[in-house]
Amino acid sequence: MPPHRKLVCPSYPSKIRNKNVSKLERPFASDQIKQRHGMNGDVLDYIEGCAVIQRLNECFDAEWIFEIQEHHVYDDEVVVLGKLTAQGVAKSQFGKSRITRGKKDNAIISLGDDLKAAATDCLKKCATLFGVGLHLYFDAPQIGASLNGHTNGNGNSPAAHGHADAKGPEVNGLPAGRLTAKQLSAIFALAKVRGWSNKQVRDFSQEMFAKLPDFLNKKEASAVIQHLQGGHDA
């Protein structure tokens, strides 16, 4: 009878993994950090998609895969669910983009471009879960912080320190019970009706559940939606 053999899944040497972590989390140069105005007038830092792709190529020798698993088109925005896989590890996140319309007739200009923008936003968010661009969020609001507190982050790539990897079992890299794309869209749509800025939504979610909206589970998302439907102020 042949001797029993233990099957061992291949893995990367720890030195390579540690080296990649350092590369992934390495702060971007100041000339790579762009700025834009948020909905409530605050200035937000962000990294362009091409810089994120360059960082992923550098760290994984271009051996990574990004897939769009779902996409949804709503009245004012498009939402996609994507998955980034590298070295056998998969991370999933949502991405979104406002639908661009003509000023005269309010007609949609290019839904394809809007979906591409949402896909880029999604890729950046997935990359954040690997550590890319985390330094932009070190000044994010702490748990229980005032809703009027300052935050230094990119509204297109939300990720708070300490919450990038949600706890619990994962399915295809997505924590089980994570809110749906429809719930995420509903939260921001209802908040807009109430006159809330995206920053206020993120701060409220942080204060209520110690998580950014993207990391809420379905039950928590439902609670936020019910709060917004009830007409409460931020």
Structure commentary:
- There is one protein chain.
- This protein is of the alpha+beta class and 234 residues long.
- The chain has one domain: Enolase-like, domain 1 (2-Layer Sandwich), CATH 3.30.390.80.
- The protein is 34% helix and 19% strand.
- The chain has helices at 14-25, 49-60, 111-129, 181-193, 198-209, 218-229, and strands spanning 33-37, 43-47, 64-73, 77-86, 89-98, 170-171, 174-175.
- Strands 3-4-5 form a 3-stranded antiparallel β-sheet. The chain has a two-stranded antiparallel sheet with strand order 1-2. Strands 6-7 form a two-stranded antiparallel sheet.
Quick recap of the structure?
The chain contains six helices and seven strands, in the order αββαβββαββααα. With 234 residues, it is α+β, with helices and mostly antiparallel strands.
CATH fold name, please?
Enolase-like, domain 1
pLDDT averaged residue by residue: 76
Q: Summarize the main sheet.
A: 3 strands, antiparallel
Per the principal axes of the C-alpha atoms, what is the gross shape? globular
Low-confidence stretches: 4-16, 139-176
**End-to-end C-alpha gap:** 70 Å
Overall domain count: 1
Tally of helical segments: 6
Strand content: 15-25%
Within CATH, the superfamily carries the name DNA repair protein Rad52/59/22
Query: What is the N-to-C succession of helices and strands?
Result: HEEHEEEHEEHHH
Explain the layout of strands and helices.
Elements: H1 14-25, E1 33-37, E2 43-47, H2 49-60, E3 64-73, E4 77-86, E5 89-98, H3 111-129, E6 170-171, E7 174-175, H4 181-193, H5 198-209, H6 218-229
